[in-house]
Amino acid sequence: MDYHRSIRVFDAFPKTEPVNTVRSTKGSYSTILMGFFILFLIWVEIGGYVDGYIDRQFMLDRNIQRVLNINLDMLVATPCNYLHTNVKDITQDRFLAQEQLNFEGVNFFIPDYFRVNGDESQGSTLDLDEVLRESALAEFREKKSFTGGDAPACHIFGSIPVNKVHGFFHITGKGYGYRDRSIVPKEALNLTHVISEFSFGEFYPYMNNPLDFTARTTNEHIHIFNYYLDVVPTEYKKLGIVIDTTQYSMTLTENPGLRNVPGIFFNYQFEPIILSIEEKRISFVRFLVRLVTICGGIMLIAKWIFRTVDKLIRVVFGKQVANRGREKASSLL
Ligand SMILES: *[C@@H]1O[C@H](CO)[C@@H](O)[C@H](O)[C@H]1NC(C)=O
């Protein structure tokens, strides 16, 4: 007898208790309900296991990559012949960006969906799945071209390799701030511009950056647009795929008055940290342990609820009702 009792303690399903054997409808309903509940939780857990979880971490950027690209695609309302483009950084390495980029004379226009003189600070860190979906890597046309230098506006596009240090990319009129063969008449300058791509690192055309699809207009010929870009290297990892990219935050000041060189300045600096966004999965063993723990917990709680309800019935309706089933049961035997 004692032996049986101790076994019963280990029995997870209280339905075997004599009190419950007969209130069978109630008992089996709750068993079925509990079964469904457990199945539901297992299903949720398996879903969570398959999907993994997103782990975001900042770490020191140990990447010794020294050079990366600025990818840009923009339109300036000044003829290409009058424009001077340049990259300068603290290593004093001066790339004549002119040689790295494509220039194409076009008419100036601002596409409808561009944000004009708006607030670009609404960029956010992309979702991991979004990145994987949109990480089609592209290369700008390799051959550098210069066409239509006299057209009213200039379409500038391409990638400029820059040192991964603080620096700036500058677009201005010929003869302003740099020694050029000619000086552009002030009246010919219009630094109104449209940016459809401005990014650092590998070029992923479908990833949105704060400057993408923005436009800035000015009614002054001598005007200064100063963009300050803080670049954070960002690494996305999922299922063995690693996407190395960057994101940046942007601040714009216009006409600071200190510099009298007109132009569009992109001042950039790289943060020494890297943001890693990775999809991780708990180990299978841990997953199993979790499942077992959850099921065990539910059973324990269910047992407790059954007992409490049972006690309540006894207290409220008296022993008679609680034992009614037993009499029926014995009469059946
Ligand atoms: C520059 O071009 C834009 C768009 O065509 C125009 O709105 C703006 O007034 C022009 N600015 C100057 C200084 O001519």
UniProtKB/TrEMBL annotation:
All copies of domain Endoplasmic reticulum vesicle transporter N-terminal, residue ranges: 8-94
UniProt topology in membrane: Multi-pass membrane protein
Coiled-coil intervals: none
Start and end residues of each Endoplasmic reticulum vesicle transporter C-terminal domain: 152-305
UniProt organism field: Komagataella pastoris (Yeast)
Superkingdom of origin organism: Eukaryota
Protein name listed in UniProt: Endoplasmic reticulum-Golgi intermediate compartment protein
Family: Belongs to the ERGIC family.
Cellular compartments annotated: Endoplasmic reticulum membrane; Endoplasmic reticulum-Golgi intermediate compartment membrane; Golgi apparatus membrane; Membrane
Membrane-spanning intervals of the chain: 29-50, 287-306
Described function: Plays a role in transport between endoplasmic reticulum and Golgi.
Pfam families in alphabetical order: COPIIcoated_ERV, ERGIC_N
Keywords carried by this UniProt record: Endoplasmic reticulum, ER-Golgi transport, Golgi apparatus, Membrane, Transmembrane, Transmembrane helix, Transport
GO (cellular component) term, any one: Golgi membrane
GO biological process: endoplasmic reticulum to Golgi vesicle-mediated transport; retrograde vesicle-mediated transport, Golgi to endoplasmic reticulum
